[in-house]
Design brief:
Elements (H helix, E strand, L loop, with lengths): L2 H10 L13 E6 L5 E6 L12 E3 L17 E2 L1 H11 L1
The structure holds zinc ion.
Length: 89
């Protein structure tokens, strides 16, 4: 687990605890095959991302999706982002 990254996100979003209300049925998950790779999955089903990748639960809040942090080489899956746009609108 990328605990330093999670800790950084938690402090960064300490004042923004609410998830994005436009996407209530999704959660951020981490790819099992590549480090720093994040995907979106349906809430309660963290083991397969919208794009079909195998994933696992992480504690990153949905409000952190797509945020760029300095010195963190994270990747936000563009397929999941596109799929979630279609799902939430
Ligand atoms: Zn994905």
């Amino acid at each position: 687990m990328n605990l330093n990254f999670i800790t950084a996100l938690r402090s960064f979003f300490r004042h923004k605890s609410e998830a994005d209300p436009a996407k209530p049925s999704l959660m951020v998950v981490e790819g099992v095959e590549s480090v720093w790779s994040y995907h979106l999955a349906p809430s309660g089903a963290p083991f397969e991302a919208l794009c079909g990748r195998r994933t696992m639960r992480t504690s990153i809040p949905l409000s952190a999706w797509g945020v760029r942090l300095d010195h963190i080489p994270e990747k936000w899956c563009s397929k999941c982002a596109a799929l979630s746009d279609g799902q939430s609108r």
